[in-house]
């Protein structure tokens, strides 16, 4: 839960859509910077009044290099190579920096660029929570230690996941520095990073908690109140439910930042003024979603807390199909007779912050107190998501065999305690999924009300802080006053999702955030710290 600041300021954060609950991260990923431009990293393990509030674990401030601090015409670079043993793919990466300054060392310019590419593959065995065995029929053969099967825990779903992604990122960072005299210094810094995060995820899962499937259990083993294994048959109770998903996301994330800083240094006073803007966009543009259902046969599962196995009566590609939809239905019909193949989904996330900051610092010789700091910061932050999608139904019946099927790579699930059909199963071709969905009649696009929102936040901060030091003791004491106004815009329904209306909600709150830090140098290599912040 650290917070990362670049030159003391927040950098907007975008998301490629892999985590629907976190559309923009709370902190900037500084690994997107070229290593040559990083001059210093400060780590604050406890809050201080002068530092932006909001961190739980601490604050990391990344300081970039200044052209006047480097020799004229400095050139630096680095190259590397990334290899992923799951995807069995590797790619080079590189970065470079050039810095220049005039002979008077009053003006300088710096530029740095970076590029890297990664081909990733990940695999996982996932459990979708648990239910109870209350619906397991009395006709099922129950073995084990005698625990009551009706109250025993049963996996609600067991999934075998396969994720592939190509991450290709390019960035440029620049700085202009002007120092007309000893008292004044101007710094203009900026960055632009663009990354493509296209990815293809497939998963195949059984779902004991779906469609009263527990009534299809023919045998089960119960140990310590858990149904550790069970067999599901496709007899009179019907076909057990199992699904294979194939989702392809196209995603581009951009991050931009521009900061202008002026420092005036007197004999004892230092005044600093900063103004800046940072913006990031991301999301899915678009996401293609497709499913296949198991047509015939049952399955069995077994697990012991470390190892998991699932085996199908027929796990081949020809057994994963979808029936056709009746003719004459409108595109995207939600009629119960229509079979949904999938859909196309768009989601754009935006994160932007504009700010103004003024800081003052004065050296002191007042007993143990060594420095007085105070200042003000204004922040205007907007964050939101706009999402929409459609429904695409089948026309004719389809089978996975029509989608250029392959097989999960050998060794993909090594070390995960997986066996049976969890490790080797048929996969669909990315291009065939995309082509099929685009070729089908397109249902109308509708807003995704639950995923769409906008939050506008204006924050004003006032702070004062005193630093002290005497002997082996040092620390600081201060308070940060925060005045925040939030306006949230979201969609709400009163009839179960038939109609939605946009709701605006405003909240204002003021908080005083005092902090006290003290450190004692036990030895040259050991420090005892104590902090009391709010």
UniProtKB/TrEMBL annotation:
<protein>
    <submittedName>
        <fullName>TonB-dependent outer membrane receptor</fullName>
    </submittedName>
</protein>
<keyword id="KW-0675">Receptor</keyword>
<keyword id="KW-0998">Cell outer membrane</keyword>
<keyword id="KW-0472">Membrane</keyword>
<dbReference type="InterPro" id="IPR010104">
    <property type="entry name" value="TonB_rcpt_bac"/>
</dbReference>
<dbReference type="GO" id="GO:0009279">
    <property type="term" value="C:cell outer membrane"/>
</dbReference>
<dbReference type="InterPro" id="IPR036942">
    <property type="entry name" value="Beta-barrel_TonB_sf"/>
</dbReference>
């Amino acid at each position: 839960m650290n917070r990362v600041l670049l030159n003391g300021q927040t950098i907007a954060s975008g998301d490629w859509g892999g985590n629907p609950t976190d559309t923009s991260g709370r902190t900037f990923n500084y690994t997107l910077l070229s290593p040559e431009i990083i001059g210093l990293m400060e780590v604050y393990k406890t809050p201080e009044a002068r530092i932006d509030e909001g961190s739980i674990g601490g604050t990391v401030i990344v300081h970039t290099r200044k052209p006047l601090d480097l020799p004229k015409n400095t050139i630096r670079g680095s190259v590397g190579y990334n290899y992923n043993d799951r995807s069995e793919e590797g790619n080079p990466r590189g970065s470079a920096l050039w810095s220049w300054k005039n002979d008077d060392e009053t003006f300088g310019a710096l530029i740095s660029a970076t590029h890297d590419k990664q081909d990733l593959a990940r695999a996982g065995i996932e459990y979708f929570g648990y239910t109870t065995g209350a619906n397991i029929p009395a006709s099922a053969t129950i073995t084990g230690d005698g625990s009551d099967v009706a109250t025993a825990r049963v996996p609600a779903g067991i999934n075998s996941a396969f994720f592939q992604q190509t991450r290709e990122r390019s960035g440029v960072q620049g700085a202009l520095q002007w120092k007309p005299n000893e008292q004044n210094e101007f710094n203009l810094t900026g960055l632009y990073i663009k990354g493509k995060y296209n990815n293809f995820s497939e998963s195949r899962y059984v779902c004991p908690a779906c469609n009263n499937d527990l009534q299809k259990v023919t045998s089960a083993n119960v140990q310590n109140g858990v149904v550790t294994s069970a067999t599901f048959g496709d007899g009179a109770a019907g076909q057990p439910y199992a699904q294979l998903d194939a989702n392809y996301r196209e995603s581009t994330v951009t991050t931009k930042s521009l900061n202008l800083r002026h420092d005036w240094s007197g004999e004892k006073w230092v005044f600093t003024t900063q103004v800046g803007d940072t913006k990031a966009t991301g999301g899915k543009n678009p996401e293609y979603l497709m499913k296949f259902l198991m047509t015939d046969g049952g399955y069995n599962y077994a697990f012991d807390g470390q190892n998991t196995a699932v085996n199908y009566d027929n796990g081949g590609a020809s057994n994963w199909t979808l029936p056709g939809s009746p003719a004459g239905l409108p595109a995207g019909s939600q009629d119960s007779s229509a079979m949904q193949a999938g859909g196309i989904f768009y989601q754009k996330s935006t994160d932007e912050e504009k700010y103004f900051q003024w800081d003052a610092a004065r050296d002191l010789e007042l007993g143990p107190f060594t420095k007085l700091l105070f200042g003000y910061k204004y922040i205007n932050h907007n964050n939101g998501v706009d999402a929409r999608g459609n429904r695409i139904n089948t026309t004719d019946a389809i089978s996975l065999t029509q989608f250029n099927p392959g097989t999960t790579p050998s060794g993909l699930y090594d070390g995960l305690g997986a066996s049976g059909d969890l490790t080797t199963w048929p996969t669909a071709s990315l291009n065939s999924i995309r082509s099929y969905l685009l070729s089908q009649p397109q249902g109308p696009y509708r807003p995704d009300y639950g995923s769409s929102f906008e939050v506008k936040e204006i924050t004003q901060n006032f702070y004062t802080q005193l630093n002290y030091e005497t002997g082996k003791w040092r620390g600081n004491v201060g308070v940060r006053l925060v005045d925040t106004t939030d306006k949230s815009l979201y969609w709400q329904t009163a009839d179960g999702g038939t109609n939605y209306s946009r709701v605006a909600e405003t909240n204002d709150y003021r908080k005083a955030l005092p902090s006290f830090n003290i450190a004692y140098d036990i030895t040259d290599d050991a420090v005892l710290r104590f902090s009391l912040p709010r």
